[in-house]
Amino acid sequence: MASPLSLLIIESDSSEVFRLIREVKANGFSPLYQVVSKAEEWEEKIEEEDWDVILCGMNWPDEKTIHDFLRFLKDRQIDIPFLLIAEKSKYETALQMMKEGAADIIDHSTLFRLPHVLERERRELVFRREKEITANYLEQSLKEIQVQKFALDQANIVSTTDANGIITYVNDKFIQASGYSKEELIGQSHRILKSQDRTKEEWYDLWETIQNGKVWKGEIRNTKKDGTSFWVETTIVPFSAEDGSIFQYIAIHNEITNRKLAEEQLTHDAFYDSLTELPNRALFLARVEQKISEYNLFQKGFPIVFSINIDNFKRINHSLGNESGDEILVIYAKRLLKLCDPSAIVTRLGADSFAVLVTDCFSIEEGTEIANKLLENLKEIIPFQGYEIFLTASCGIASYGMAGKDGENILKNAEIAMFHSKSSKVGTVSVFNQRMQEKINYQLEIQNDLKKAIEKNEFIVYYQPIFDLAANEICHWEALIRWRHPKKGMVSPTDFIPMAEDSGLIVSLTKFVLEESALFAKKMREESNYKFSVAVNLSPQVFLDQNIFHWVVDIQQRLGVPYECLQVEITESLAMKNLSETIPILSNLKDIGVKIALDDFGTGYSSLAYLEKLPLSTVKIDKSFLNNVIPGSKEAILLVSIIHMAHGLGYKVVAEGVEDISQFHLLREYECDLIQGYLLSKPLSLEDAVSFLENFTGIQE
Ligand code: C2E
Ligand code: CA
Ligand code: CA
Fold first, then answer.
1. Quick one: DSSP state of residue 240?
2. Which residue's C-alpha comes closest to atom 15 of ligand 1?
3. pTM above 0.70?
4. Which domains does the chain have, with CATH numbers?
5. pLDDT (tens digit, 9 = 90+) per residue, 472-504?
6. Fewest CB atoms less than 10 Å from the CB: which of 74, 244, 594, 647?
7. Would residue 556 be called left, alpha or beta, if left means φ above 0 and alpha means ψ between -120 and 50 degrees?
8. CA dihedral 599, 639, 627, 611 (to 10 degrees)
9. What phi and psi, each to the nearest 5 degrees, are found at residue 459?
10. Exposed, middle or buried, 30 (CB in 10 Å: 0-12/13-18/19+)?
């Protein structure tokens, strides 16, 4: 049967009230409840019933209201368990409220602790009330009859001391709780219990209260003989002789260690990262705020925040598994902590992201120097289960003032600067500036708009001609995607392809490019009997995860475009990633006649040995490779040998990014087969490509 519960809910949001009631009912309570949705109703409703418990949401427009409720209860000495329903982000405030009398915090998203806490608080309330009655009764009766060592030993930890605070009596429960023997305790002062957590002033207040003949109540954290802590809720009753002088004190203690440990755990979990034991974001931000106030007061300890992210940590998780990844993160966190000044605060923000607050620099330049040194030292190899793990990290720096006035903003800007390092030069340090913010905003906008761009038909395929030197004609084209953004104009694929890859949108984009390219080839064949192939770029997400072979077969069957008209371009790093997976896919495509080009050769591994293993048709030499080629240079010799080696394997060579005629002459001399670049034409829309072909008469020498 459901157990009855009288419940006062302080919550302004009615849907939240229903959720709480549902939860309470679902857990076997039959609640009689009232709701306080406005602060004015509070006083009236609290008097209305003898409430078992108060549940209070944290979403009051003014948090001060909750402080007011708690003060009201305290002032009127109303003892009703007060439970806060708080989101993680409000834990810090909620913990402050626990100091003001709230009994516990229930996590807003997982109310599963609620019934347990309700039950516990109800039990404790009954217990407290009984104890209060006992204590009052005791105080009176003991005063009357002045008898010591009463039978209350049965329920509580009891001790008596003389007027000087020397222990004269302890009951068995006291002995059990403290771990000391009777002999060790009698004759000692309570100092033997090395009470903690209270200031000198608080102890002074306690003594003053009881020396004035008043009862003192409060929580005390004591130390057992074995060094561990035990908490007690204590009532100290002074006894006075007829002349008013105090001759002894009786202390009645109720052990609350379990509750305190649970509270401590809650505090710990709310502020520390469970994996590395480093402070978490919330605690870190609180420390930054603290340092900002100190800096404003004393002009010392200029707060600078480093955001540090390990480069490509995914690789570790993928190759060694998440568990090993976690262990490596713990080692990394320890190393980071050791490398930082003891005054620095080091935090783990999540996954492979850390932040450091330094306050021992006088300038941002000094901070940058420290950050550079830190990154250098962090690179040291981590020996792990027989492996040697080499990790680099990228760092962003933001300082108080220049990059924000509060912790949140400074940290956010340090992260922006860190992302800037990642995108410009991995493994380096960048100091935040406003332009980075603008760039991030731009990227965020692009990311948002990208999702809708396909439906809105904003993509268009451009084609860049590829010239065959021996045939003296254009016999290939490369399809390059373009995004006509309604506000930003043409957005470069280098800006949105990585995002499309991350979001999976690249699959439909590539299908679109393939389809358009095939239509382009078909149109030209049918209208002008012009035969050529179009190359489509394939991202790893498409090449490895999709059945590209079926895509091509489907296109051929639907549109009747011969396989020879299609070409795919894959990058070297993709091809090498997993040879046993890539080779069969490539072989199948090659067998039906689809040409395969290895893109951007010369930027990655540039492994000539691997070239031999792959079923290719063409090798495309990256434009950066061409920049440094001067006749007779080392680069020129390398270029010639790559061309010869590719020819030896039966592959054609395309030189990309050919911009001037001297490069063209050189490439012809080196027996390069094909060229692509602005010398011939920039990528063109379909209409422009058609008219380009009509007017093309060859390269003007
Ligand atoms: P990529 O595959 O290396 O394409 C060649 C890039 O070089 C193109 O840039 C092209 O416009 C540019 N280019 C060609 N000739 C010259 C030249 O003479 N000088 C200079 N400076 N640049 C030249 P684009 O169109 O901006 O594309 C950039 C990259 O975006 C491509 O590099 C490719 O990796 C990617 N991409 C483009 N379209 C697609 C697509 O449909 N799918 C996938 N997965 N990636 C694409
Ligand atoms: Ca390409
Ligand atoms: Ca390329």
1. E
2. 677
3. no
4. 1-113 (3.40.50.2300), 141-259 (3.30.450.20), 271-432 (3.30.70.270), 445-695 (3.20.20.450)
5. 999 999 999 999 999 989 999 998 998 899 888
6. 244
7. alpha
8. 20
9. -90, 150
10. exposed
